[in-house]
Structure formats: C-alpha cells, structure tokens
Amino acid sequence: MKAVIMAGGFGTRMQPLTCNIPKPMVPLVNRPIMLHIVELLKKYGITDLVMLLYHQPFVIKNFFRDGAEFGVRITYVTPLEDMGTAGAVKYAEKYLDERFVIISGDLLTDFNIQKVLDFHLSSKALATITLTSVKDPLQFGVVVTDKEKRITQFLEKPGWGEVISDTINTGLYVLEPEIFKYIPEGENFDFSQDLFPLLLKKKLPLFGFPIKGYWRDIGNTDSYREAHHDILKGKVTVKIDEAKREVPGKDLRLGLDVRLGEATTTEGTVVIGDNTQVLGGAEIRDAVIGRNCTIEPGAKLSRCVIWDNVYVKKGARINDSVICNNVSVGPGVVTEEGVVVADDTAIGEESLLKRDVKVWPRKVIEAGSTVTGNLIWGERWKKSLFEGEMIKGLTNIELTPEFVAKLGCAYGSSLPKGSHVLIGRDATLSSRMLKRSFLGGCLSAGVNVRDLRMISLPLLRYKLRTFGEVGGVHFRQAMDDPASTEIVFLDADGLDFSSSMGKNVERIFYKENFRRAHHTEPGGITELPQVVDFYREGFFRGLDQALLRKSATKVVIDFNHSGAGQILPQILNDMGCEVIALNTYLDEQRGAKSADEKPHSLQQLSKIVVSLEARAGFWLDPTAEEVVLIDETGKIYQPAELLRLMVALMLKAGARGAFAIPVSAPSVIEQMASDHGCSVRRTKSAERSMIEAAISPEVVMAGSMGGRFAFPKFQAAFDGLFTIAKTLELCAAAGVPLSRVMKEVPFRTFLEGKVSCIWEMKGGIMRKMSEDSVEKEATFIDGIKVSFGDDWVLVLPDQYLPLVHVVAEAKEPRTAQRLLEEYMQKVERWKKELQQ
Fold first, then answer.
1. Residues in domain EIF2B subunit epsilon/gamma LbH (predicted)?
2. Exposed/middle/buried for 382, CB within 10 Å: 0-12, 13-18, 19+?
3. pTM of the prediction?
4. Which CATH number is 240-371 given?
C-alpha cells in the first residue's frame, strides 16, 4: 500500500508562521506537522510514500531525505506549476500503480485508516472519501451520502445558505489507480471541484465513509494554537520526542540537556526541547517550548507555543500566544491571547501586544509600545478582509490610509498591467480621503485609473457595461454605522465581486506579494466627465417617455443627501414629471442619514405625499440602489409587498418573460406570473446570484427582498434611480392608483423571524434541518425550504451575522404563524441538543 502526502500548499492563511517555512514543516509539539502524518501512516503499515511538493520543496527534502531515518521510503514529486490537487497527483501517476491513500500534510488526526481501507474494499469503490462532522463547515467541502454511504451531493466551501449538513470532506481519500483515466493530463484539476463531481455525474462508485476520531485542519494560526491545546489535554495522542519525567502529579516532558532552575513551577502538560534552560522562579503552564531557548526568572508562560532559539526575559508574561524562531522577548512584555510573533523579531521591554496581533518577521518593537493592531498594516488582524463584495471597517481606525493604499496595490496586482479601472465615491470627506489612498496603490501596480469622483454606484455599474475597464471600486459611508466606510468591488461587467475574486486580492494582500511598476510605468489618472450624459441617454432609451410626459406625474423623493439628488430630478423633469425633491444637498461632513433615522424619514415622507396629493413617494437609499415606496394614500410598502407590487405592475403593462427572485420571496409571484404566461426563476439570496440570473435575455426584472430591482433592458444591476422612473412609467401605463393595483394582487400571509445562533452551531442546525426534512418535499437552493402543499417554510443561516432566518408563507394566517413558531422552536431545540 502506498500513500501520497499533499505538501505543496503556500500556507497563506497561516502567515506569519509560514513566512520562512512551508506549512507542512511548521512545528507541532517540536516536530513538523507532516512528521505526525508519516507516523500515522506507519502505524497502519503504510511505509511507501510519495510526497507532492511545490512551495519551498527543499526545506521538506532536507528534513526527510530518503525517509530511512523515519522508517519509510520516500519518493518526491515536484510539478513545475500549480496543477491543482488532482492534477498534482496525476503528475505522480507512474509511481501509483496500485491502490493508494491520499492525505494532506497539514492535518492532525488519529483516524483508523485500516477501517477506511476495509470499507473501501467491501464497497468495491473507485474512490472513498473519509468524512467527519465539524461545527463550522464553511471552510470545507460538505458531503451528502445516502443510506449505503454512496455520495449524492457535494458543496465545496458553501455559504451558510447552502449548508445542509455538517459532514465534511476530511482530505483523506482511498483511490484505485483507474482513477487516473478521469484526470486530464497537464491541466489544473482539483479533487473536490473537478474530479469528484465528475465521478458523481458519471455515476461511478464514489463513496463517503464517516469515521469518528480526532481531526483538525491546521489552516490558520488559531487552529494551530488549538491543536496544541488538544494535544496537551490528551484529546489526541501524538508522538513526543521529549522523554517523560516521573514527577508525581505532573506531566513533564524534557529533552536532552534541559536545565530547570530551582523554584521553577510547572502545571498541566509542559514540553521542553533540547538544550533549553529555565531559570529559577519561572512559571509554566500547559506550554510547548522548543530547543535552545532561555526563560529568565519571573517569566510566566501559559498555554503558549515557543519555537527554537527564543529568549524570554524576566517578568515577561506570554498568554496563549505563538513565538517563532529567534525572537527576543524583553523584560515585562505581555502578550494577550492569539498573538503571533514571527521569526527574528525583537520586542522591547514593558511592551503590550494586544489580543490577536500578528507581527511579521524581522520587526523591532520599541520599549513601552502598546501594539493594538497588526504591525505591518496598521490595523487589527482579520481572518478575512471581504464581507461578500465589500471590505468594511472603522474609518481611520481599521481602514487607515496606509491600509487602503496597500489594499489598492493588492487589487491592482490582481489585474493586468496597463489595464483601466473605474473608481468613485459618495459625498463624504472620509470616502474621498480613503479613495485617494487606494488610487495611489492602484497606480503603483501599473494600473490606470479613470476617476469618476463623486458618483452614485448605479452610474459606475452602468459605465462598466461598456468596453474599456476591467473592474470598478466605490467608496461610501456605511448607513448602519456612519463611523465606518464600505469599499465595494465590482467586476468588469459591473457585478459584485465573486468570492474567488475577493480571495485572490486577499491572498496578495496578506502575502504582500505586490507588483511594483517600474518608475517609468506607473498607472495614470484620467477623468470621464461625460459619464452622466451617457447614463442619461441609456436611461431615456429604457423608458416610454411619451407615456410619462402624457401622465404629468407628481412624485416626492427623499434623496438622503446622496449624489443621486444632483441627477435624477433633472432627468424626471425632462420627461414631464413634477418632482418634489427632499434632502438633495450634499453634506460632506455628516454624509447621508443613518439607519436609525429611516423610520422617521418614511413617516414624514408619507405625510408629504398625502398632503401634496402626489401619485407616489420614494425613499432612496444613500447607495442609490434600494428604494422604499409610498403610495398615494400614504401607505409605506414593506419589501415583500413592494416586490409583489412591482411584479403586478410589470404584468399589467404586458411584460413577457421571466422574473428573477430569491428563494425567500412570496410564492404568490409564481401564481401571478403563471396567470399571465410568464415564469419565475428562484435564486440564492446573494445579490450577485440575482444579478447573474438577470443577465439572461428572458429575464425582464430581478427583485430582491430588500427593495432592490434590476431591469435588464436598461442594465442588469440594481438601480434605484431607474427603479423610481420605471415605477412611474408602469403606474402611468396601469392608469389606476398604486393602492388599487395592490388590492388586485393575490394575498397570502408572509412572516419572517430570526433566531440567534453562534457560528459554530450553524452547520449542526442545518444538518438537523436536513434530517428533519428527509420525508418532506424540500429544496436546497439557499438554505432548506420545506413545502406543505402550497404552504412553505424556509430555514436560512445568515451569511454575515450570528443568526438563522425562518420564513413562512401560507394561505391562512394561522397556518403561517404555526409554521413560523414551529420551526423557530425546532431551531431553539436543536441548539440545545448541539450544546449538550
């Protein structure tokens, strides 16, 4: 039996631990992570190993050599380029002429591999994937099997709305050599994304074997620390080179020539490497210390990991932190939980490193410093920069000019040199400040910027539909927190950034792998003053101007101090509308109104609409993408009502085609569309999913559950300005007041609820929901939606908040209320079961 150890990863998420060594060689209890994998394979008689290398291969080769020292035989294979996981294994095909095991070189596990092999043989599988349950399945591939353990579905790194189980792919596979027939030669090919879905599609014997035991993907610094905690607590057994010292009531492991001074106290499990000296009076609890270290008197080390050649001076307190090689920790230094200090760093005396600070290699921290954020970026370390399509943070605290300049450089480095991007902003001074910093970063990477200055986001999206730019970025004040700035990233088609695009920028940012243009080749800045005129022309073409002029509509619009107030009133006036515009002036210091002011603004707007006898009133979100409608009676439409009304208006105007709506939208829309010979396309709740559906030529409108609409005839993106004009046109075509149109819309009770749920439980909740829905009619477009005839309930984890949404719709109000309460109670019960 042979085994392939995947050891080619860059270890980006583990930086700064992996700045100088590849991830499989990061020490785990003073031994490389991959050595623990080798020991596990040896335990089950697997000693013929193929190591697949790519990043810094010489470090791994210099340590393992031919494998004889470790009781194994090693063959090294190093592809010339990144071929993907399956593509890299294809590169080693000539060494794999019999059944073989695949395992990652950065796992910590004690799985019984023999049980996996026995199952593989008994099921006559072509491929067997080892499965296990985890609390947070988002970072892994979720796998669904039937009763015979045959795989029926894959979800590779899903969003919370897609999670239907917490059973994940562990990266441990058993494969037959016939598998190579399905891996193309010389192509980038991945196991999870390409090979396994192909086997599933061809209905080949692909099985998943759930196994109990310890498993951890050591993918980031938090997981690395927790792996040590688990080893020291005895949750998983690994080989430790240091010998156990027989001391009553203590678990003390000491290497060769270790010197423990008098009055040194140890508590819990303590591992100390060769030639390390701990001077009298030091206190150590549940810690791993490497080789050739010195710990001075009075130092307190708790739940920490110390690598080799580290000097900890008197009075220092290291708490749940990682200190890498060749670091000097000065007297009285304090590190809080989650701190990582990389190689060759000197920390001055009496310095304080706050929680989760990451310090990259070869840094000097002056004495008495209080380091509250990451030393390189000037802000606190985050696991992920992107929240969907945007990066959000406190202005000048988290999103500082220096941070944003590097972000611009990372973004520019992800684009072709010499390409062009659009950059715009809202009216606030803070957005202007950060945009200018970002712009400089783009220029330094050799990317040209077309500066749109202050502009509404829909106009920027509209310009991206034309040839010339490869992307766009918009800076705006966050409505839910005026102290924060949101940076929205768009692709070449004006769509929100996909997750893969965001991860690419993030990877460059974290590695600081910036492209620096030659001093003669930085990007240039140009302006496009004609963008508004270009937008107006398209705007006019997308509407029936004659109908609007004939109707002479009076409308009241609250512009929320956004830039749209400088554009839309004139456009509507040119089409014969009488516009009463509110809050059109720009306030650079204050910005737009906050979310807390929205209810009051809507009530005021409602009164004005009624008193002026206007046909309608609109509240326009500062992003100029979301609208709230008030009809002529002063009724304020909730998002679900507005979506039904807009579909009804489109159908009344004779629209023919499909409507793209999220899975959580009311089902009466299908009924209305069907009665008029139209169709409905359900999408995920993510706005990008709706817009991607809107690109189809059959789609006449896409509508969200948040008051955002797209009309592909004009542009397949949410546009509040055009939504207002289109609503007025549709209202004129209907020839009756909006309130009467709404009365004709079929009514069904539509209810929404929220249940608080910590991130670690979301996967378990969706597994419970999936199990509960086995015998029911269920769909899995986004979350899990269960139908009971014409009634239904949806359980959907929130993508960014610790919440689970429950949505119910029924013909009878009592039925809808019962469904909502029943499933909210189920979620609460499942939470308690998972806690136990």
1. 257-350
2. middle
3. 0.65
4. 2.160.10.10
